Amino acid sequence: MTEFDLIRTYFSDVGSRRQDVVLGVGDDGAVLQPPAGHSLVMATDCLVNGVHFPVDAPADAIGEKALAVNLSDLAAMGAQPAWVLLALTLPDADERWLRQFARGLGRAATYHQVRLVGGDTARGPLNISVQVTGFVPTGTALRRRGARPGDAVVVSGTLGDAALGLSLWRGRADRDDPDVAYLLDRLHRPTPRVSLGQALRGRATAAVDVSDGLAADLGHLLAADNLGATLDVDRLPLSEPGLRFGGRERQWQAALTGGDDYELCFTVPRSRLHELDAIASRLGVALTRIGHVQPEPGLRLIRSDRTPVSLETPGYSHFPEVR
Ligand SMILES: [Mg+2]
To answer: Is 140 annotated among the ligand-binding residues?
Structure first.
């Protein structure tokens, strides 16, 4: 198949049709109409074979995840996602792989009501770059900056599942076991907290998505204001399958240092904590208060009985030598 055939066959109708797409896939550029009174929010991520997903990961999961990780960044900004660009290099035009990849990408795009509006394909090592644009009412974007001493630190969902899922994938665990299937799903099909991010506008003082382990990502948020925090590791939200497979100690370590959870971590004034219950039940997502912000920089970890604990490994980094 020629490049033109590939694009037309698999990428000309991906995601939800949107009124604000004046001109989508097929021209030299997309023409898009942002709503009045809003600012654009843009994020991009590239996924490299064997680095960001296992080489033997299913193609539909790669398509879904390539979009989900970008949507997670927009969620952390409180943005409503709208438009997607895709740049794909492939070693060969493997039609079956492409069909499955496009299906996974399309599933996530339709679910989140975003539209693929353009892109490029070329021959090369498998590499997937996705760019997502969304918008926020002007002046309301969530940022990493803004936390204040005394704010509660809150996380969504459960943490550490994807790290455990990766070790189960590599270890060829029994994929028919429901616990294993759940943990592999958390690895391959993360759930970007798009609606939660928008609900946090005007409530959270700062937010970040958890892509590289809670310790690293919360660390970025705190460092933005030269602040610190104390976290109670016994309060970290862990899934039942994670606890059954990993055990409590291993799972809270995975929560802090594993990657790929794509949950949100945010700070909120204690006076507004009660507002989170309604949001959690409306959106069907757990929101767990795990600690509080302090003026002294650094992350302090304690057990519920207040004994201090430490991490075994630093947060995941693609470039460990520059940490
Ligand atoms: Mg991020």
So the answer is: no
Q: How far is the CA of 4 from the centre of ligand 1 (A)?
A: 33
H/E stretch holding 269 = none
CB-CB neighbours of 157 under 10 Å: 21
Per-residue pLDDT, 4: 64
Which of 137, 167, 193 is a domain's end point? 137
Quick check: is 316 in a domain? no
**Chain segment 292-304, per-residue pLDDT in tens:** 999 999 999 999 9
Strands 152-156 and 287-294 come out as antiparallel
Q: What range defines the domain where residue 160 resides? A: 152-307
289 is in an annotated binding site: no
316 labelled binding-site residue: yes
220 CA → ligand 1 middle, Å: 10
Phi, psi of 153 (to 5 degrees): -100, 125
Is 185 annotated as ligand-binding? no
Beta-carbon-side half-sphere exposure of residue 195 (alpha carbons within 13 Å): 11
Residue 87 covered by a domain: yes
- Alpha carbon 82 to chain centroid, angstroms: 16
232 carries a ligand binding annotation: no
Task: Check pLDDT > 80 for residue 110.
Answer: yes
How many domains does the chain fold into?
2
Tokens 């207040």, located at residue: 306
Residues 6+ apart with CB under 8 A from 154: 265, 266, 267, 268, 273, 276, 287, 288, 289, 290
Instruction: Indicate if the pLDDT at residue 314 is higher than 70.
Output: no
Measured CA to CA, the distance from residue 89 to residue 87 in angstroms comes to 7
User: Whole-prediction pTM value?
Assistant: 0.93
Q: Which residues contact 19 (CB under 8 A, 6 or more apart)?
A: 33
The pLDDT score that the predictor gives to residue 1 is 66
Residue 40: pLDDT over 50:
yes
Within a domain: residue 292?
A: yes
